[in-house]
Amino acid sequence: MNDAAWQLPAEWESQSAVLIAWPHAGTDWAANLADVESTYVALAAAVTRFQHLVVVVADDALREHVRVRLASAGVNLARVRLVLTEYDDTWLRDSGPITQRDGDRFRLLDFRFTGWGGKFGASRDDLLIGALHANSVFRNAEHERIDFALEGGAIEVDGNGTLMSTLICLHQRHPAMDEAGLCEALGKIFSVAQVVLLKSGELQGDDTDAHIDTLARFAPDRTIVFQACDDTTDPHYASLTAMSDELAAMRDVDGHPYRLLALPWAQPIHAADGRRLAASYANFLIINGAVLMPAYGDRADADALRVLARAFPDREIVAVPARSLIEQNGSLHCITMQLPEGVVDVA
Predict the structure, then answer these.
(1) Where are the alpha helices (DSSP H) in the chain?
(2) For residue 58, which phi and psi values (nearest 5 degrees)?
(3) Predicted confidence (pLDDT) per residue in 175-233, tens digit
(4) How many CB atoms lie within 10 A of CB 239?
(5) What is the CA radius of gyration of the chain?
(6) Domain around 219
(7) Order of strands, edge to edge, in the sheet holding 98-102?
(8) Could you tell me if residue 242 is inside a domain?
(9) Residue ranges of the alpha helices (H) in 250-342?
(10) What does residue 107 show for φ and ψ, rounded to 5 degrees?
(11) Could you tell me which of 327, 264, 261 has the C-alpha nearest to residue 301?
(12) Is the pLDDT of residue 1 over 90?
């Protein structure tokens, strides 16, 4: 399906909407549903200040519940579209559409979603994109099923011909493929000039096998924002330091190095059962006019906000409480999927 006319926009390019799925008692959020709903309300309020929000809901009762909950929080419902579709969980970065565009035409790339390498059941999530397409959520868009296991959180593009991912994640999904084969496959699928697979960097409490969106993110003007660790006694120190060395050695398609901005390291956060949680500031969401930053109630939150303001000087940086999200091993970027301008009718 290599077709150079189809391009995957960088996340900071203009968007129609952000796509999310609302948590409910039938998802893994049941144990802390009240807390996580508060985060979703804060997220909805932040997004709708700047653009539209498409919310997937599992049934009519949940649709009404969400409508009431958002209205009571003062969210602008004129910028919210509620869509009824079944789903297993709410990690739409990984089960939602990766949208390519060619002018005013769009292609919804629908990769095999395996529940992060078979860790969790995902039969309904694997059908989600087709269901949304059949539900007329998108316009002027083709639905393309691709027989290749991949999640949206596993890839980053700089909008100038480079795709970045991690070798550990892709090799877990495709153990029979070597690095060269993986790079060739991704290069063809996404019509990019180069694919860079980082070999270092993985967070405790991340069950995605080192998704790139917990580690390093592209920003405009040849910039990479990455999660650093400055605590030499922390078990992450060696791996994240090695990752920063890999990023420093990267070059864009024109041979230029990237400007690197290091995000601060939050103090360790643990679940009630003692698990270390992956409190990554790299899991931010870029929208029209703003960057939504996950906040963990740590003193490093303020420093992370300042770093993101350097990376995105023309956008407002908005902190969204995300402590409840990392209980289920993901954060803000993981529960969202941006939709490029024009692919959703928001009139």
Answers:
(1) 33-48, 60-72, 92-95, 115-118, 128-134, 167-173, 179-190, 237-249, 300-311
(2) -85, -25
(3) 999 999 999 999 999 999 999 999 999 999 999 999 999 999 999 999 999 999 999 99
(4) 17
(5) 19
(6) 15-340
(7) 98-102, 105-112, 141-149
(8) yes
(9) 300-311
(10) -130, 125
(11) 264
(12) no
**Alpha-carbon 228 to chain mean position:** 19
Tell me which residue has tokens 């498409």. 54
Looking at residue 286, which CATH number applies to its domain? 3.75.10.10
Q: Is 3 a residue whose pLDDT tops 80?
A: no
Q: What is the rounded CA–CA span in Å between residue 76 and residue 89? A: 25
Let me know: does 339 contact 19? Beta carbons within 8 Å.
Answer: yes
Q: Map tokens 């960088």 to a residue.
A: 10
Contact 216, 156 (CB under 8 A): yes
Q: Six-digit token pair at 285?
A: 């969401």
Name residue 296's beta-bridge partners: none
**Is 5 contained in some domain?**
no
Taking only the tens place, the pLDDT of each residue in 289-342 is: 999 999 999 999 999 999 999 999 999 999 999 999 999 999 999 999 999 999
Residue-wise pLDDT for 25-53, tens only, equals: 999 999 999 999 999 999 999 999 999 99
Distances (CA, A) of 214 to 34, 233, 325, 330: 25, 21, 13, 8
Q: Are 144 and 107 in contact (CB under 8 A)?
A: yes
CA distance 130 to 317: 33
DSSP state of 262: E
Which one-letter DSSP state was computed for residue 247?
H
Per DSSP, the residues of 84-108 read E---S---HHHHS-EEEEETTEEEE
Please report, as a single letter, which amino acid is at residue 201.
G
Tokens read off for 93: 């970065």
- CA–CA distance, 327 with 236 (Å, rounded to integer): 19
Total domains present in the chain: 1
CA 159 to chain centre: 16
DSSP letter, residue 344:
B
